[in-house]
Amino acid sequence: MRVFVADIDAKNNQGTAMKNELVKKETSIMSMDFDTVLRFASVVVKSGKLPRDWNVETAAMIVMYGQELGLSPMKSLLEGFDIIQGKISMKPSLMNAMIRKAGHIINIDKWEAEECIITGIRCDNDTKLSIRYTIKDAEKAGLLNKDNYKKNPKNMLFARAMGNLGRMLFADVIGNVYADGEFEITDKKSNKVDQLEETDTVDVE
Q1: Strand 183-187 vs strand 192-195: parallel, antiparallel, or unpaired?
Q2: Fewer Cβ atoms within 10 A, N terminus or C terminus of the chain?
Q3: Which alpha helices (DSSP H) does 30-152 contain, by range?
Q4: Under a CB-based contact definition with an 8 Å cutoff, are residues 98 and 174 in contact?
């Protein structure tokens, strides 16, 4: 089969044009004006795919917050955030994905029911940070009687470690948001939320 350079160039140009068009569409979706955000939020709320206590205003706030971080509306609403007693929290899996997508490195050095150690390395200046959170830290904070810690201790330790690592080393990527699992409701009547103490076991290079 004979392939001509002109044909290859034409195909490459066509591929580049398609990529550029996709980038334009994605950019337009992630930079919606306020009225468009409200209409979009209204549609998603009516779909019944969001938590029952989320109204249009709540969904719109999540979309706008996600836009600030470069996230698409659907990712923000369906995969990205939770609201715990009025506080926005990000899913640890999204934190992990955003940091890696930005080119940085995350190594899960240890992930067990008793201890989680996560190390992050920035791609721009090679700054290295290790965060350790243990079941003993959770016990000191009075968390072991919580259902999440009884059923999924590994995931809760991971959430704590990831949240600390994200804010300390990658705040330019995820903002100053807390991870799911880092808030504890101490008074349901007053909607008071206490942030848990951060682990003091940190290694920096």
Answers
A1: antiparallel
A2: N
A3: 34-47, 56-68, 73-75, 92-101, 135-140, 147-151
A4: yes
Residue 128: strand pairing partners? 121
Task: Work out the widest C-alpha separation in the chain, in whole angstroms.
Answer: 76
Give the SS3 label for residue 151. helix
> For each successive 10 residues of the chain (205 residues), what is the average pLDDT?
47 47 45 89 93 92 92 90 85 94 97 97 97 95 89 94 95 90 49 41 47
**Are residues 108 and 149 in contact, defined by beta-carbon separation less than 8 angstroms?**
no
Contacts of 125 (CB under 8 A, 6+ apart): none
Q: Kindly list the distances between the CA atom of residue 99 and the CA atoms of 70, 77, 167, in Å, as whole numbers in the listed order.
A: 12, 19, 11
Contacts of 51 by beta carbon, 8 Å cutoff, 6+ apart: 82, 83
Q: Are 133 and 108 in contact (CB under 8 A)?
A: no
Return the sign of the alpha-carbon dihedral for residues 57, 63, 66, 68.
negative
Residue type, 3: V
Output the pTM of the full model: 0.71
